[in-house]
Amino acid sequence: MSERQTAHRLRRAREFEAFVAGAAGRLLHAATLLTAEPPAANPHAQQLLTAALAHTYADWDRLRGEDPYDRTRQELVTRFARGAWRYHKVRGGRGGVLDRLTPQERLILVLRLYEGVAEEQTAALIGLPVERVRSISRRAIATMRSTPVATAS
Q: Where is 35: in which H helix or E strand?
């Protein structure tokens, strides 16, 4: 391997490590909200994030000015959406704060409220019409407001 290739790989690794150091906490929190797992026990969220970060790293040189956070979030959302129904059916409730919502409702609320993604962008990201995203968002918020949160004794 040439010196130039080695330098490029080291620079790439440093850039990616800096990105992960700055973004991994927020992305893990988003993944934990998506999976409705408690923060202290979130193995599925960690798996989602690891896979999304691996995909971003593989595409790192091709990002060309694209925001790596947006790319990683998109990959996280896509991976969650692909496996959410199976995950929800097999594992059921995990005790997270968003556990009472469907996977689709969680996905939309996390994107809209936690990540601050506009309705139009959310709709495009998950492949639904804007009105459907708006309707699901209203329903999910109503569910969260109407269901009392269990408190620890």
A: helix 3-35
What token pair was written down for 117? 């993604």
Distance set, CA 42 to CA 11, 23, 28, 30, 96 (Å): 31, 17, 9, 11, 10
Say how many C-beta atoms besides its own lie within 10 A of residue 150's C-beta: 8
pLDDT digits (tens, 9 = 90+) for 109-129: 999 999 999 999 999 999 999
Q: Does the global pTM surpass 0.85?
A: no
Q: Thinking of the domain 3-146, which architecture would CATH place it in? A: Up-down Bundle (1.20)
How far is residue 117's CA from residue 113's CA, in Å, rounded to a whole number? 8
Q: Which two tokens stand for residue 34?
A: 């998506």
Residue 97 pLDDT > 90, yes or no?
A: no
Task: Kindly list the domain boundaries of the chain, sorted by start residue.
Answer: 3-146
Q: What CA–CA distance (Å, rounded) separates 90 from 101? A: 16
